[in-house]
Amino acid sequence: MSFFICTLNLLKGQGFYLKIKTDMDFMRQALTLAAQAKGMVGHDPLVGAVFIKNRQVITKGYHEKLFGLHAEFAAFKNQDFDVEGSTVYVTLEPCAHDDYFPSCAQFLIRKKVKKVLIASLDPNPIENGDGVQLLKKAGIEVITGLMDQENRSLNQAYFERFK
Fold it and tell me: Residue 58 CA to chain centroid, in angstroms?
């Protein structure tokens, strides 16, 4: 079920080898991005997002500071990218509500992404799975739970707030 991205590399004088990137590799990138904001986001969760298209990372971003851009928007803060048909790896369910920022789920729908892999559903009752439902309703394939435990460890304080 994993989406594989293969890169053929030529080692000088040693022939060819195949480097395979899996869903876990891309989610690990998103988690690494999210971790960069440790101590900067206050009570907000640490969130990273990686956009993949045509077997390459197009753009990536993370929630950098309290009341800062959400990870999905941060990936586009310096430049707009064509991500139509792309796969997105995001560490926390894209938000469905509009408050300080527009809905991340609606943003992904407008960007016409094809698939979204989510490490963890957002435990905040304001979300309650609404982001996933919006994405699915728009015809976007959604997979949840990829590296959920790693994300829960990274965001332990956030998840404990909503027990």
Answer: 13
How does residue 91 score in pLDDT terms, banded at 50, 70 and 90?
A: very high
Predicted confidence (pLDDT) per residue in 123-139, tens digit = 999 998 999 999 999 99
Residue where the block lists tokens 């739970």: 145
> How does pLDDT run across 52-83, given as a tens digit for each residue?
998 799 999 999 999 999 999 999 998 999 99
Q: What is the DSSP string of 61-118?
A: EE--STT---HHHHTTSS-----TT-EEEEEE----S-SSS--HHHHHHHTT-SEEEE
Out of 72, 84, 127, 150, the active site residue is 72
Amino acid letter for position 124 = N
Element (H, E) at 20: strand 15-21
Structure tokens at 116: 């979204």
Does the annotation count 72 as an active-site position? yes
How many other C-beta atoms are found inside a 10 Å radius of the C-beta of residue 107? 17
